[in-house]
Amino acid sequence: MEHFLTLISQSFITLIAFFLGKWQDRYKYKIEAYKERYLHLYCPFIAIYVSYIRINEKPKPNNLEFRNKILELIKNNILYLDTNSLAYFQFFFTMIRFKKYDSNKIFLNLIKSMLQECKHIEKNLKYPMKAQLLLSRQNLLDE
């Protein structure tokens, strides 16, 4: 009986170690993916954003240099874009062709969506919450 309990406990410990290892691998992969997205898309996005937007001022989509830099960054790093921002990005280009909707409003929604995703990534990586600060300063949180 004692041998049987030892065998079961060893098997149980091995099983737990296996699943903890799998969980840890998944967690490491998730963190690495967040780091890559942050490094290639969201960090340059924040750098462009803060170089064009003043404190307590909303982004101005009609500033073509700002808009073009943001759109170029997204196009070159679309792999790292979240689905919500991708929807705004696609909608922006569709509407700009037809001039049916206010493309400026869609662009602002794209900016807000990217800042929200950046905030989520910064929180998961335990980085300073720059996106949260920008969202609150530009009053983009509750629009």
UniProtKB/TrEMBL annotation:
<feature type="transmembrane region" description="Helical">
    <location>
        <begin position="37"/>
        <end position="55"/>
    </location>
</feature>
<keyword id="KW-0472">Membrane</keyword>
<keyword id="KW-0812">Transmembrane</keyword>
<feature type="transmembrane region" description="Helical">
    <location>
        <begin position="78"/>
        <end position="98"/>
    </location>
</feature>
<protein>
    <submittedName>
        <fullName>Uncharacterized protein</fullName>
    </submittedName>
</protein>
<keyword id="KW-1133">Transmembrane helix</keyword>
<feature type="transmembrane region" description="Helical">
    <location>
        <begin position="6"/>
        <end position="25"/>
    </location>
</feature>
